[in-house]
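Q: We require from you a single protein entry containing the residue sequence and its fold in token form, and nothing else.
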Amino acid sequence: MELSTNQHFKQTVKMVRELLFWCSCAVILLFLCVIGIYTAARIAGPPPIEVPQSSIYYAADETIIGESNSGGEKRYWVNLQDISPFLINATIAIEDQRFYRHIGFDVKRIAGAIVADIKAFAKVQGASTISQQYARNLFLSPEKTWQRKLKEAFYTIRLEANYSKEEILEGYLNTIYYGHGAYGVEAASQYYFGKSAKDVTLSEAALLAAAPKGPSSFSPFNSWEKAKHRQEVILSEMVKQGFISEDAATEAKKAAITLVGNTNMQQRNIAPYFQDVVHAQLKNELGLDERTISLGGLRVYTTLNPNMQKIAEETLANTVAEESLIQAAFIAMDPKTGYVQALIGGRDYQESSYNRAIQASRQPGSTIKPILYYAALEKGFTPTSKFRSEETTFTFDDGREEYTPQNFNYKYANDDITMAQALALSDNVFAVKTHLYLGTETLVAYAKRFGIESKQEQVPSLALGTSGVQVVEMANAYSMLANGGKSVEPIFITKVVARDGEVIYEKEEQHEQVLDPDTTFVLTHMMTGIFDDSLNGYANVTGHNIISKTTRPYAGKSGSTNTDSWMIGFTPDLVSAVWTGYDKGKAITLPTEKTYAKNIWVDFMEKALKDKPIRPFKPTKNVVGVNVNPESGLLATEDCPVKRYMYFIKGTEPTEYCSAPNNTNETTPDHTEQPIEKNQEKPWYKRIFDWLSE
């Protein structure tokens, strides 16, 4: 009996030893498997975690004006530090309480889930960690198979082996689906609450953290009761885990929540024509492909001024009659930098996305004349140089061609007029005479110097703006006058930042002195004449009907053809250009439609600059200002009925005095036959006059 018992004991010991041996082998094998899998995960390297992300367009004040969009999905990436701690903690509390303590799998939670499922004879509790969910979102299809589960486990290990907990959490929060096409906390925060993820409150954070469990069920837009109940559960869990106090949870449960139901980012209605230009430049000038632009998660910083854009759109809408079929284009620029601050390419983007400010080529009419007169000033003309204003037929091409330009309403001075008055009244005969005097190649060359790339025909009518240009080109050309003659180009994008924070493009500003500063100022002051009734002559100055609306000094020029109406003008700080007309070149016949461009321009400028200090055009060092009788072009005296303060390059100002009205022609120097050179020395009597005037 004792022997039998002893044998039984020995057998038991042997079995225990064998069991321990095999258990040890199993543990060692398991350990080796874990080490092997972990090593394999390390060897495999970090899995790519880049996901498609919407690119965001920012205005100059860094407010969001738009985004790229793919299939209605909104995807943005924000750094972990730019996510509200409430939202981070709420997510951890409800999704993965031991996130920072496990290595990708929560064994305790898995065991609990198994027990709960066995008791219910159904799958009632999930055990996926944040790492597992992130792996599933990134790399796997939604099918529920053992093969997919094994892949999920391996991807989870790869994530944990190669990325920090913060990187995994950041990735998870930026990719999880919250419903309504919103992927990630930023898109969801914008959609649900109309604010950034960094700004959500505790109450909002808990409500948002409820959605990923089942967006169709727990979205407050689909079921407020379910969403609210889960929010309260989350707040209670946050208290249990020490994230918040009981009082904070109670207050959050009672807090009112305002739901928005759309995204402030997806704003195609904010400057849509401007956004189209930005997209085109990303592709054509920066060389980015469509996928990178649309899904690369770029942050594109633009020059748009949202306030000016709003003013421009409202001004256009309020000026042009709703029933009118006329079209319009508008652009506003900072002349010092070239930054395009507002742009309108048409009256209705939904009806027509054709960008008339950038794509259309239209005749500029008399708005080309300042470029012509700049050339004349550089070649010896002065503001008081004269030509006769009368109906004139010009012959050219060895007498085989004739050209007879007409003034507006067929009005002429039938006398000599000064260039300053010719510009203010927009005398066409004077312009053509100047053009032919300089040589028809001159204006073509100077247009290029002013940055106009559109081809200009070398013909007599070019002085009246018969060759097509783009609105953006004219705004750019006038910017050179406003900034004192420096080169400038229209800029829409200042910086582009990749999804990883790398700056892949940043605009470098270079402004070369292209025009003579003194000549530029003299011309600029001449251009203020369209708002000065002292230059009225056989007709009113062209800005006469909007002078009453102006509250500060402006320089500018209007222009019109049968099919085009323009107004371009500027202060030292802002240039804006307006074009109105019909797409198919229909004649503008209604008197009201002929005034649209001027009224849009002046109303915009007044509103855009309303709170800005009034800045006059500052004379340069080598110019001198004197009072001049506009009709005679001579120095004004008490006998002259009208006078205007005009500027000249030093040494080219008038030296004769206006002695009496209607008796000035005999003493008027002929500046057109013998143009005064800029560097001509002042006569001795003029130097004495300057000395006595000091």
Notes: The longest helix spans residues 2-44. Residues 623-693 form one domain. The longest strand covers residues 327-333. The two ends are 141 Å apart (CA to CA).
